[in-house]
Amino acid sequence: MDIEKTVWNILTDPLKGIGYNLIRVKMIGSKKLQIMAERFSDKSLDINDCVKISKFISVLLEKESSVNFDFALEVSSPGINRPLIEIDDYKNHLGSYVDIKLKKIIDNKRKISGKIVNLLDENAIELKLNKKTFLIPFNIIEECKIDPNYL
Fold it and tell me: What is the CATH number of the domain that holds 70?
């Protein structure tokens, strides 16, 4: 199991227990662990939350034998161009405009932007761009972020 999945599994439930939703766990290079989270209550995060989460996570990870590496911990909010990672993220953002990077080319495009109009059997999204509709399987989405130009 990779370090991101390991940390995700360690942190998800404890963060829920203190009122936060884990958005993303990402290793940046070999020395920085980025944790993205938001409050359940209002989907935001301020500097006090970041400090609280950082201290909480540090204690959890120091006790965890499966996480044995040196890293700098960065805790942040998802921001206005929030990444969509889990299926529930897509469900919660139906009707939102997104920018997507693809792992492979669809319709001569590696990047595509549009409005999420449907979630199909938790295997794909239906994206509408102008009058054209694209069916995009989750397994070819490299990265998907909310497009802040349409907020």
Answer: 3.30.300.70
CATH of the domain at 106: 2.30.30.100
pTM of the model: 0.80
Cα 78 to Cα 10, 27, 63, 109: the distances in Å are: 20, 15, 27, 26
Q: What does the block give as tokens for 24?
A: 């993303």
pLDDT tens per residue, the chain (151 residues)?
588 999 999 999 999 999 999 999 999 888 899 999 999 999 899 999 999 999 999 999 888 877 766 788 999 999 889 999 988 899 989 999 999 999 999 888 899 999 999 998 789 999 998 899 999 999 999 999 999 888 6
